[in-house]
UniProtKB/TrEMBL annotation:
It comes from the Bacteria. This is Beta-glucosidase. GO terms for cellular component: cytosol. One of its GO terms (molecular function) is beta-glucosidase activity. Keywords: Glycosidase, Hydrolase. Belongs to the glycosyl hydrolase 1 family. It comes from Candidatus Enterococcus testudinis.
Length: 500
């Protein structure tokens, strides 16, 4: 009997984001981004954590206070894990893990500090060229995200971010500079990270300062900004294919999977409606047009998207080459949620599933949900898929002997890898690769906490900026290394265990 493995050429690796690891927020010409004014938050309860809006919203007054402040404890994304000065060490560790690919993002404001300049910042381009070259020296293929939760701050303040149509041209100037510089070195590009998230955290994703708009108009503002991102994404696909025909461009969506809380028809219908909202954003980038669901929503809510004929044409003619997504948890939907427990997720809130365990942050653990998600996505789009974020955030403890036993993380990823294998071999899904989120500890996205750790590599840094920044291998390091060495065979004969 043949040994179980993943397909030849499967792309194993890890994923990070510039705003959560780099630091050096005002070094070598970088301008401030939305991430650099996001406050550290330390939720003391699941209820506090579930207040997604409070974790991600910001006002002009808060921005003014942030720009006056030099307190890195309040604004920890300004220091990250100092990857800017540790990238060689970090990439060497990724190479030791055996990475085939490394997904990371470019900070737009490191290339164009205010977003609207005409000439790129050479020191910013040189930094990313150094990172790319370092990866390639170890045989690691870069997967680069062009926009990952950090629009230039001045672009947001001066132009109202992506609500302003000028954003398309500003972004394309940035994209053209980056693609021309790195063509031939980067085979895989992603346009916007979790493009759907503009409705959940409009400031981080779209640079929208909600307090500038009336509540009645803000839904229109968000969808108009979203449209501008869709046009920019399609133009980016077109440009990359023209400049570097061998390169592949993907979209990236938050794969939120919901179950009906019960088999009541009204719960099933409510779940279907929620799932149509989830798929709508990816539909546009794959099929090149707005789905019926969104068209009906716009009509019923008097939302008037300003769209030109050229917008429609460029979107239709430039679909993405592959679909990438994040997957962390599932939750439930009910037509009437009164009295039902809620649970946190990836900047989302859902009804708690009584049949699933959860992490310390309340994210419900569901490997079968990953298989379900893979099948649904592949049946819907018939394009290659890539899981570019998946992992377990947990509080890791350094033992007296310096070791870190994170068996819970091993169990989590082990179970999800088995679900991936079943989706490929039992369901016929075409899965390109898997990049575990946060292969090295990094700052949490919405709360900027360091204590919520994902990595195979521990970074000696706490929530308040104290620590040596030393890198330490966890127990999961050698485990994941073996997974990659054996192309998954090391886990495929084992029985899954999911503990928290």
């Amino acid at each position: 009997m043949c040994k179980k493995t993943f397909p030849d050429g499967f792309l194993w690796g890890g994923a990070t984001a510039a705003n959560q690891i780099e630091g050096a927020w005002n070094i070598d010409g970088k301008g401030p981004s939305t991430a650099d004014v996001m406050l550290f938050r330390d939720p003391k309860s699941i209820a506090e954590l579930n207040n997604v809006h409070a974790n991600t919203d910001i006002t002009d007054e808060m921005i003014d206070d942030a720009l006056k402040s030099t307190d890195l404890t309040k604004y920890p994304k300004r220091h990250g894990i100092d990857h800017y000065n540790h990238y060689q060490e970090d990439i060497a560790l990724f190479a030791e893990l055996g990475f085939k690919v490394y997904r990371f993002s470019i900070a737009w404001s490191r290339i164009f500090p205010n977003g609207d300049e005409t000439t790129p910042n050479e020191k910013g381009l040189q930094f990313y060229e150094n990172v790319i070259n370092e990866c390639l020296s170890y045989g690691i293929e870069p997967i680069i995200t062009l926009s990952h939760y950090e629009p230039p701050l001045e672009f947001c303040r001066k132009y109202n971010g992506w609500y302003n149509r000028k954003a398309i041209d500003f972004f394309m100037n940035y994209v053209e500079s980056v693609i021309n510089r790195f063509k031939g070195k980067v085979k895989y590009w992603l346009t916007f990270n979790e493009i759907d998230s503009i409705l959940r955290h409009p400031f981080m994703t779209g640079g929208l300062i909600e307090s500038r708009f009336s509540p009645d108009e803000f839904q229109q503002v968000m969808y108009q900004a979203m449209h501008h991102q869709f046009v920019a994404s399609a133009k980016t696909v077109k440009l990359i294919h023209e400049i570097d025909p061998a390169a592949k461009v993907g979209c990236m969506t938050t794969k939120l999977t919901y179950y009906p809380y019960s088999c009541k028809p009204e719960d099933v219908l409510a779940t279907q409606q929620r799932m149509r909202q989830v798929y709508a954003f990816c539909d546009i980038q794959v099929f090149g047009e707005y789905p019926a669901f969104l068209k009906a929503k716009f009509k019923n809510n008097n939302i008037d998207i300003h769209m030109t004929e050229d917008d429609a044409k460029v979107m239709k003619n430039n679909p993405v080459d592959f679909v990438s997504f994040s997957f962390y948890q599932t939750s439930c939907v009910a037509a009437n949620a009164d009295g039902l427990a809620l649970t946190a997720g990836n900047t989302t809130i859902g009804i708690k599933n009584p049949h699933l365990p959860a992490s310390e942050w309340g994210w419900q653990i569901d490997p079968s949900g990953l298989r379900l998600s893979l099948v649904d996505l592949y049946d819907r789009y018939r394009k290659p898929l890539m899981i570019v974020e998946n992992g377990l955030g947990a509080k890791d403890v350094v033992q007296e002997d310096g070791t870190i036993d994170d068996q819970y993380r091993i169990d989590y990823i082990d179970a999800h890898i088995k679900a991936m294998y079943d989706a490929i071999h039992e369901d016929g899904v075409e899965l390109m690769g898997y990049t575990a989120w946060g292969p090295i500890d990094l700052l949490s996205n919405s709360t900027s906490q360091m204590s919520k750790r994902y990595g195979f590599i521990y970074v000696d840094l706490d929530d308040y900026g104290n620590g040596t920044y030393n890198r330490i291998k966890k127990k999961s390091f050698n485990w994941y290394k073996k997974v990659i060495e054996t192309n998954g065979a090391s886990v495929l004969e084992e029985k899954s265990q999911v503990t928290v």
